[in-house]
Amino acid sequence: MPIARALMSVSDKTGIVAFARFLSGLHIEIISTGGTAKLLQDEGLKVRTIESFTGHPEIMDGRIKTLHPRVHGGLLAVRDNPGHIQQMAAHNILPIDLVAVNLYPFKQTIAKPGVTIEEAIENIDIGGPTMIRSSAKNHAYVTVVVDPADYTLVEEEMKKDGDVSLETRKRLAVKAFCHTADYDTAISGYLANVYGV
Questions:
Q1: Which stretches does DSSP call E strand in 54-190?
Q2: Nearest to 4 by CA among 93, 71, 96
Q3: Which phi and psi angles does 8 have, rounded to 5°?
Q4: Is domain 5-195 classified as CATH 3.40.50.1380?
Q5: CA distances from 127 to 21, 73, 141, 176, 179 (A)
Q6: Which of 44, 79, 85, 101 has its C-alpha lying 20 to 30 A from 192's C-alpha?
Q7: Separation between Cα atoms, residue 113 and residue 102, nearest integer Å
Q8: For the purposes of burial, counting CB atoms within 10 Å of the CB of 51, is it exposed (0-12), middle (13-18) or buried (19 or more)?
Q9: 47, 37 Cβ separation under 8 angstroms
Q10: What is the pTM of this model?
Q11: Who contacts 138 (Cβ-Cβ below 8 Å, separation ≥6)?
Q12: Residue 43: strand, helix, or coil
């Protein structure tokens, strides 16, 4: 699947600038959120903010920014389904071909001495896991990268073949679902302990 558009939203920014620079060098449009967008822009990269992509501002202290049909329609559309393509055109939805997302640092937050339940809850990522799951579900068409260690793998395949193989997309999708499962397990375990349930 040729990659024309990538969405980047990471808490762990290891390697993200170099990865974005690589994608930009291939004329891939980069969409990004908040701190990731600012970092990439500060590094001189051309970035489309999520607000300009969705046509809607971030609201509720950043709790809602990527939960939008233009994001999830772009991730979940079945690219060879004429009905999906027609609906994308009708609703001004552009395909998103690659997602580099990792999540709010929940485990690191709850490991801090004296952390409050309010602080922990604010570090429960909602948009990130949703984008990861949408991308992983639609791995037939979308490449999802949750681990910065995999940026090199994606780059190498794109240099060699101009795209990311289905086999690699499958492996990355499995890794993505493991990532969100581990994240939810940490949250449920913490809340069960705090609430005594």
A1: 98-101, 143-145
A2: 96
A3: -125, 125
A4: yes
A5: 24, 14, 20, 14, 14
A6: 101
A7: 24
A8: middle
A9: yes
A10: 0.93
A11: 75, 76, 77, 78
A12: coil
What are the structure tokens assigned to 178, written together? 């493991």
Residues 158, 142: Cα–Cα separation, whole Å: 14
Give the start-to-end residue ranges of the domains of the chain: 5-195
Q: One digit per residue, pLDDT tens: the chain, 197 residues?
A: 689 999 999 999 999 999 999 999 999 999 999 889 999 999 999 999 999 998 888 878 777 888 898 999 999 999 999 999 999 999 999 999 999 999 888 999 999 999 999 999 988 999 999 999 999 999 999 999 999 999 999 999 999 988 999 999 999 999 999 999 999 999 999 999 999 99
